[in-house]
Amino acid sequence: MDKTISPNKRIVSLDIIRGFALLGILFINIRGYQVISDTTVIPSYSAFDKTIENFISIFIEKKFFSIFSFLFGVGFYIFSSRAESRSDNPRWRFTRRLLSLLLIGIIHLIFFWGSILPIYAIAGFLLLPFYNATHSTICRWLVGISVTYLTALLVNLGVSSKNPILAVTSFVTGDLTLIFIMFLAGFFVAKANWIGRIKDFQNQIRRIQLTTLPLFIGSSIWIWTAAQADSKQLPLIISISTIPTVAFYLSTMFLLLENKTVSTIFMPVSYVGRMALTNYVAQSFIGLAIMSFMNIEYPLPTQVVLIAILIFLSQTLYTVVWFKFFKMGPLEKVWRFMTYGRLKY
C-alpha cells in the first residue's frame, strides 16, 4: 500500500481535474439528452458554429471522458489500498462497488441512453487482476494495449472500407479499449505514487508535457484540416489524437495545480469533482429540462457551449453550498451505502 496517501485526506488536484472533466463531458453529452429521430430537423451551421464545432473536436471530444477514465483508475488504487489498510478485502469491496455502480448506471440508462456508468462498471472488473501486479507488469500491459489500439486506428485509417481486416481492428478501436487504457494508466500512476508526490516527480511530468506538446499541436492541426475538408476519417483522427492530448492535458494540469494560487482559484471546481457521480447524473436531467424549456430539438454548437456553461456554473454554485452542510453528495452517499452496507466505514 502507498503509505503517503492518507486514509482521510482528499487530493484536491484530483477533484479539480475531475470537475473540469465533467465540464468537458458535458459539451459532448448535451446532444444526447434529447432523443434524435428521423423527423428531427438538424439546423444548418453558420461559419461561427462550424468553427466552434471544430474546436470541440480538437480540444474536447474523447479527451475529457478519457481524463475521467484516468481518474477512475486512480480512484481504484486509492479505494482498494485504503480498504486493505483497514484489513478489508480490497477485491471483494471494489467488486461490490462496481456492482453498485452498474445498478446506478442501468437506472440512469433508462433516462439517458448515452450513460457511461454501466461501461465503467463492467470495464472496472478488468482492473482487478492488476491490483497486486508489479509496476513493470502493469507498464508492459499499458504499453502493449496502447500500441495495439493506435496501430489498429492507423490500419483503419489506411485501408479500404471493404477490407475484411476492419472487422477485427474496429473492435479493438472501440471506446471500451480507450477507457481501459486510461483506467490502467491512472492505476499505474497512483500505484507508482506519482499522485501523492507530484513535486518529487515534476521533472518526469515536465518531460511528458514537453514530449506530448508537439504531438498535441500536430494532431490539432490534423483534426482542423480534416474537419475543414469534411473528411469521413475525422472520427479516426480524433481517436488517434486522444492519448497524446490527454497526456499533455493531465501533465499540464498536475503541474499548474501544484501552484497554491492556481489551486485556490479553482477550488470551487473541486466541489463539483467531489460530487462527480451526482453531478454527472444530474447533468442529463438539467440539460433535458433546459432544452425542453427552450424547445431545442438539436442544439447548435453555440447553444451547446452556452448550455454547458450554464449547467456547470449552476452545479458549481450548488455544490459549494451543499458542502457547507454535508460531507458528500446524495448519490455518493447511496453508492457508499451500497458498497459497505452502512454510511460510515
Automatic annotation (TrEMBL):
One protein family per Pfam: DUF418
Source organism superkingdom: Bacteria
Ranges for domain DUF418: 190-341
Listed name of the protein: DUF418 domain-containing protein
Membrane-spanning intervals of the chain: 64-82, 94-111, 141-159, 165-189, 210-227, 233-257, 277-296, 302-323
Organism: Bacillus thuringiensis
Alphabetized InterPro entries for the sequence: Bact_Transport_Assoc, DUF418
Entry keywords, A to Z: Membrane, Transmembrane, Transmembrane helix
